[in-house]
UniProtKB/TrEMBL annotation:
Record organism: Paenibacillus baimaensis
Domain DUF2157, first and last residues per copy: 12-147
Keyword Iron: no
Family annotation (InterPro entries): DUF2157
Leader sequence segment: none
Keywords: Membrane, Transmembrane, Transmembrane helix
Domain of life: Bacteria
Protein name from the UniProt record: DUF2157 domain-containing protein
Keyword Membrane: yes
Transmembrane segments: 37-58, 64-83, 95-115, 121-141, 146-163, 169-186, 193-210, 240-260, 272-292, 313-335, 347-367, 374-390
Length: 409
């Protein structure tokens, strides 16, 4: 929460008599922009100093004796961790957190430098797993979003490195990330943290499917598993954060099917299709668990979102059309739910989805026979018109909702 946001929203609370003018001013006094600036400056300064020290050592690494190198790595790591604790004890939490983050960075850099120093050859990503595991432990110890994001990035990059360089997917890395950082996300219920976890989960699931050379449609199993977990989160914002990534992924898959499916050969299609009994069984099981979670939290109407997971690709004809209809239906549904819930973010999100779907349909239907200049001109005008209309409609609905709330008082 920022002072700028409070200055914008606070007067409306006073007008609605939610709080008094005195209470508003007292709340406003708790948020000073200069305090935030003071907190950010030490954080940035410590990061620059730490990176400067590490870059200096790396530049002169070959000239430093091996024993001195080893001592330097250990000393730097101890200094950063000890400095973090010292600053925290003196109520400088941000600076202490920055020092701890540098200690974690130094730990990972030390692993790489020591391996280079002693000519150790690795055929897997065990060292990265150890680095990410230490980051996960520090995340639980300090309950820090920064350390969480660093650990998540380490696991994700490590998995990518293992797939690209060693041609193997690390189930250990994936399991530690899901159990360690996933449980932390579940407990903390922070929207940004959950969203980042969902992105990492989907990227690693994609790496798994590609590296194992599975039929591509199998990606929908971990995708909808993630979506189903969102139905069991009580807080709607956190659940939506977890579900938005798989829904966006399914939405993107449908767009590809609309635009490119007609160009697929028989071999291309076979590369996508999973075995029907196992694949459909897994999806139906997840659908049943998802429905129960929605019913338990009074969200049964959101079951309509599963339309994006329907495998129309198994049909014999009309596949692109069915995916296009699914895109339009999903966009209209999310837009309707946003208006019903008066949820500004969902309305904006649905507006973007509807405009994207409209442009996909326009591209699909007109690209082959329309003059390209005319194509872009009409497409741009259509996009501007839709954007204006939907934004105008959003403002009207939200204004009516606010006026209705005032009348009810």
């Amino acid at each position: 929460m920022s002072r700028k946001w409070l200055e914008h929203e606070g007067p409306e609370w006073v007008d609605k008599r939610i709080i008094t003018r005195e209470q508003y001013e007292q709340i406003l006094d708790l948020y000073h922009d200069n305090k935030h600036a003071i907190g950010v400056l030490p954080l940035l300064g410590s990061i620059l100093v730490g990176l400067g020290i590490l870059s200096f050592i790396a530049a002169n690494w070959q000239e430093i004796p091996q024993l001195v190198r080893l001592i330097l790595i250990i000393v730097l790591m101890v200094v950063f961790y000890a400095g973090g604790e010292l600053f925290r004890k003196n109520d400088h939490d941000r600076l202490g957190l920055a020092m701890t983050a540098l200690g974690l960075t130094c730990f990972g850099g030390g692993i790489v430098l020591i391996a280079q120093m002693f000519h150790l050859v690795s055929y897997d990503i065990t060292s990265f797993i150890i680095w990410g595991s230490v980051g996960t432990l520090l995340t639980y110890l300090y309950r820090s979003k920064l350390l969480y994001l660093m650990s998540l990035l380490i696991f994700t990059v490590a998995q990518w490195y293992g797939v690209v360089e060693h041609h193997q997917f690390s189930y250990v890395c994936f399991a530690i990330m899901v159990v360690g950082l996933g449980y932390y996300s579940w407990r903390r219920q922070h929207v940004g943290v959950i969203w980042c976890f969902a992105v990492s989960f989907m990227l690693q699931a994609l790496m798994l499917v590609i590296e194992q050379e599975w039929k591509f449609l199998w990606i929908f199993v971990p995708m909808m598993l993630l979506y189903t977990l969102g139905d069991w989160i009580k807080d709607r914002s956190s659940g939506f954060a977890l579900q938005s990534v798989p829904l966006a992924s399914a939405f993107l898959f449908a767009i590809v099917m609309v635009l490119a499916f007609d160009d697929f050969t028989r071999g291309d299609r076979l590369e996508l299709l999973a075995q029907i009994p196992y694949f459909m069984g897994a999806l139906l099981l997840l659908f049943a668990v998802s429905l129960y979670g929605k019913w338990k939290h009074n969200r049964i109407s959101s079951a309509f979102e599963w339309i994006l997971a329907v495998p129309f690709i198994y049909l014999h004809s009309g596949i692109a059309v069915m995916y296009l209809l699914a895109l339009f239906t999903f966009s209209f549904y999310v837009l309707w739910r946003g208006y019903m819930e008066q949820w500004r973010f969902k309305i904006n999100f649905a507006t973007v989805l509807f405009i994207c779907t409209t442009m996909v349909a326009y591209f699909k239907l007109t690209w082959d026979f329309m003059d390209k200049s005319l194509f872009f001109i009409i497409g741009g005008l259509l996009l501007l018109t839709l954007s204006w209309f939907l934004n105008r409609r959003k403002k009207v609905v939200l204004r009516d909702a606010n006026e209705g709330g005032n009348h009810n008082e």
